[in-house]
Amino acid sequence: QVQLVESGGGLVQTGGSLRLSCAASARTFMNSIMAWFRQAPGKEREFVALITWSGSGTTYVDSVNGRFTISRDNAKNTVYLQMNSLKPEDTAVYYCAAGARWSTLPKEYEFWGQGTQLTVSS
To answer: Residue 27 is inside which H or E element, if any?
Structure first.
């Protein structure tokens, strides 16, 4: 049973923008903290951003603060990651995740998508 499905990745030039989407099953999405993580080749999975159920609470890793914006549409069971001013170091596979706790740790998230590749060319 598929719980989370990411889309929107691709190839973009430095300074460009892209929006990722993550569609969830209603059961997975309801009342969940939704987060985005990323993993570059040879590196550990890294927290990027999270958002509370109401959308009133968000937090970001310092490296994307001011460039990325996480949002959610609870009517569509979808969470988004708007990425602006992209840099080559943003290149990674991006994963969305659903959990019950406010956390930046991957282990706290129960459900994961399959990931979508973002490549930022210099």
So the answer is: helix 26-29
Query: What ranges make up the beta strands (E) of 17-113?
Result: 18-24, 33-39, 46-51, 58-60, 68-73, 78-83, 92-99, 109-112
CA distance 94 to 74: 21
pLDDT tens series, the chain, 122 aa: 558 999 999 999 999 999 999 999 988 888 999 999 999 999 999 999 999 999 999 999 999 999 999 999 999 999 999 999 999 999 999 999 999 999 999 999 999 999 999 999 99
88 is written with which tokens?
């080559």
Strands 10-13, 116-121: pairing kind: parallel
C-beta of residue 60 within 8 angstroms of C-beta of residue 111: no
Q: How far is CA 87 from CA 9, 75, 119, in A?
A: 14, 32, 9
| Location of structure tokens 């059961």 | 27
Say how far apart CA 118 and CA 3 lie, in whole Å: 21
